[in-house]
Amino acid sequence: MKLAIVTQFPRDPEFPYGGVEAVSVNLVRGLCAFDDLSIDVVTLDKNSKTTDTYEWEGARIHRLPRKTDNELLNAISTGKTAISHYLDKLSPDIVHAHDTYGIMTCDITLPKVFTVHGFIYGDTILSNKKLPWLRSKLWKYIETRGWSKQPHIISISPYVRERVSQFSKAVIHDIDNPISSSFFDLQRQNSSNVIFSAAVISPRKNTLNLIYAVERLLDQGINVELRLAGSVSNPQYGELVEQAIVQHDLTDNVKLLGRITTAEIQKHLTESSIFALVSYEENSPMGIEEAMAAGVPVITSNMCGMPYMVKDGESGFLVNPSDVKDIARRMMLILDDDHLKTRMQECAKQIARDRFHPDVVARKTYNVYKDILASD
Predict the structure, then answer these.
(1) Which of 15, 178, 186, 287 is buried most, with the most CB atoms less than 10 Å from its CB?
(2) Strand order in the sheet with 194-198
(3) Model pTM score
């Protein structure tokens, strides 16, 4: 079976930027275990002047020049044309597109499946760019039109299924995102009161309320350290975060790590008692999956895709992301109860092993490919 995976793929697979790149690396690595698969990964790269093709762990990576930084124009114009022409050249048996690449492939006639990772029109509303509501409406039209043209869609969460099914009659396959198998092999240390979060600094990720929750713990005499890993996607919000740390005298207790490597994320997870992500909107965050695989209890929001990942009271806690008091109280429950912490660690690892291990996800995805080709 000749497979073309069309996605955003990092130049350095050990340093992916964002969930889509991480998923792509983990999925390709998992699928390379199937001897009857011939895998071509096609991606657009603004740093490529000409098409660059090379081997990586049994797959062929094709880096095509990306002609515009504008995501919208890339999806519906220059990028779409480049991807379509290249797929004609490769002539695969099946195409698996991810994220905006699904928009680029919605009109091709080859057998195909599209993994929906997120909703750009929702993210755009919270962006700091001009005319966010107008841009959001335009993105919603383009995204939903793309979904309606797909015969098969992979949903990474029931939350994604609920939203996509309103606009598409595609056959929807429920498959979680894969994470690196190395997260399952981490040896945890006797953790101190470290709370770790891996997400970009932005209003949607609700970074400030995590900081304020830590401040409440400190006021109650609980010495904790919050480590925030992630780049700043919203400069104005990033300034507010830095100001809050200084103004609330939290420089010794809140550490801004910036964007870090997978190996560094793993190190911080081994040292952490809690992984916290209290976003206002998420589909299926990789950070939660990685923390669970490492056996770290998770505190996350009780909305969108997150309740489908964490069992409240068993592998972590679900909280109201707007309620700083609730966030702090749930943190305190885990930090103060070693028995609860141990029970949550074991539960989280088992859920992750059953759902997020790359071998499990690759097998489910491979079976989708076979089903699609058998039905054509």
Answers:
(1) 178
(2) 254-258, 225-229, 194-198, 274-277, 298-301, 316-319
(3) 0.90
